[in-house]
Model the fold of this input.
Amino acid sequence: MSPDRLDDFEKFCALLTLDSGHALALEPFQRVILGDYFAGTPETLAILPKANGKTTILASLALFHVCTVPDAEVVIVAAARDQAGVLLKQAAGFIRRSDGLRARLQVKQREVVHRALGGRIRVIASDVDTADGLLPTLALVDELHRHRSPELYAVLRDGLGKRGGQMLTISTAGSDRESVLWKTRQAAIELGAVRDAMYLRGGGEGGSLALHEWSLVPGRDDPDDLQAVLAANPLSSVTIDQLRSRHDSPSTTSWDWERFACGIWSSAEVPWLPPGAWDACRDDELEIPVGGRVWLGVDIGRRFDASAVVAAASVEGRIVVRSWVLESPGTTGEQTDLAKVEQKIRDLAGHYEVREVAYDPWSFERSAQLLADEGLPMVTFPQTHTQMCPASSRLLDAIKAGRVAHNGDPILAAHVEAGVITEAGSGWRLTKRKSRAPMDALIALAMALTRCELGAKARRPLPVVVDLAAIARGEYDDWDRTPA
Done:
């Protein structure tokens, strides 16, 4: 492949229209990344912070390839189905806004087909079974650090030789130093690496593997130095003000900032709360009044796990929370007794005005229907990335801002401390430590607080709540505590 093709690609980009209405302009750092690709390097790896145009460059390169290579087989592999959809939407948008591309390309449900040249672009989620057997002329890999299987990269790489294909991988920094992303990065560095400020070039000229990385250097650069961070974000539209807004946001963790803004690799398990933040929210005087409005979150533990119900109420400008935890049946692998969870919710409905009971339908659907038939206001809260990412951020924001009040319950504190961060979708969410310490009350807390903060501001009729008045019945001895 001739380096002159890079100039052809730049001209092609100028014909593409962004959703802003402006033409796509290839930036200098993007020319640096693509220089090795257009020089014929089989494998190119680029690692840079988020919001630096990764999706745009992948979509535009895929379109260029399918429009210029007969019978092209372009495979764009995203970490998850939602990201694969974003990539396809970006490519489809370019086609929709271009008369020339619309005449040549047909957008189908999961692929783009060139009518005359016979090539196609397939966008798939990272699944080895789906990718196995592909013989791509171009493989574009998005966010490799998030891919579930390390085998996928090898499957695609092995398929390149059959048709003289090439692979371009663009990712943010990861956390697992046993991952294929880290090992590929290290392999490129071992072939020869040169650093210029925030830019690292690895792999050597004319080799089979090239690395381009923009990042701060741990121990040398200060992640709070926004000028240094700006230098690690090569996209021209990234500004100091944008970075400052991200840096100062209460929902931004140090893990989130260092990995996604600074390009620094983090450890696999990162606490989600700053030290002392939960203890600072303790208030032994503030209580949820009897008959007060509460929002409940319910998390049902699987085998060997706990289940929890958390109540959240808006009291004197703060969200007061209380939790009740049902321990797992032990080492027998038995499922949590859902009848005890159902009864706990009934008991709370007799003590408070329950506005909503948020639950994950995967584990509580039948119980929820039973309680709804009794008049309890059940609300589905699937524990998907779409729901739990904003709920996790909202909880972190509330705790750091001091909007949460708790009574020092040690079991709830243990569940809160058991949570760590995991990347999910376009953000992060709470997950368990490898020690598998229970954190079900933390998940229920995120659900309850989210619904409480949203619901407390809503203007709507009160739901019908069954008053069972069964607080002192004593039918829930397995619960660690009773309502205040």
In short: Residues 88 and 109 are 9 Å apart (CA to CA).
